[in-house]
Write a structure and sequence with these properties.
The chain is mainly alpha-helical. The protein is built from 7 helices and 3 strands, in the order H-H-E-H-H-E-E-H-H-H. Helix content is about 60%, strand content about 10%.
Length: about 120
C-alpha cells in the first residue's frame, strides 16, 4: 500500500490530531500519564466509547502509549510518546490563543436555543 501524501504540514498534523476530542485528550496527557477513568473525568462531555476510539487512533498514530499492568482489577495507563509530546508542545500556542480570545469566541457562538 502506498503511503498517504499531504499537501502541507498542517494537513499532516490535522490527520493526527484533527477532530473535537483528540486535542483535548492530548492536552490532558501532556500533564503526565493518566488512567482511563481519569481521562474520562477530565475530558468532559466525551462518551466512554468515543474516548476508547480516540485513544486507539492516537495509539495507532504513535502519539499515545498504552500500558497494561496485567493486574486484577485491570489497570491501564495512557501516556504521550516522545512524538506525542512534541505535538503537545505545538498545540500550546493554539491553547494560549483560545484562552486569550475565549470570551469573544463564546459570544460569537451563542446557543440559538437560548437566544430565542
Amino acid at each position: 500500500m502506498k503511503p498517504r501524501t499531504y499537501g502541507c504540514g498542517l494537513e499532516a498534523a490535522l490527520a493526527v490530531v484533527g477532530g473535537k476530542w483528540k486535542p483535548i485528550v492530548l492536552w490532558q496527557l501532556a500533564r503526565g500519564p493518566r488512567r482511563f477513568g481519569e481521562l474520562r473525568r477530565l475530558v468532559t462531555g466525551i462518551s466512554e466509547k468515543m474516548l476508547i476510539q480516540q485513544l486507539r487512533e492516537m495509539e495507532a498514530d504513535g502519539i499515545v502509549d498504552r500500558r497494561d499492568f496485567h493486574e486484577i482489577p485491570p489497570r491501564v495507563e495512557y501516556a504521550l510518546t516522545e512524538f506525542g509530546a512534541s505535538l503537545s508542545v505545538a498545540l500550546k500556542p493554539l491553547c494560549d490563543w483560545g484562552r486569550d480570545h475565549m470570551g469573544r469566541i463564546a459570544a460569537a457562538r451563542t446557543d440559538p436555543v437560548e437566544s430565542s
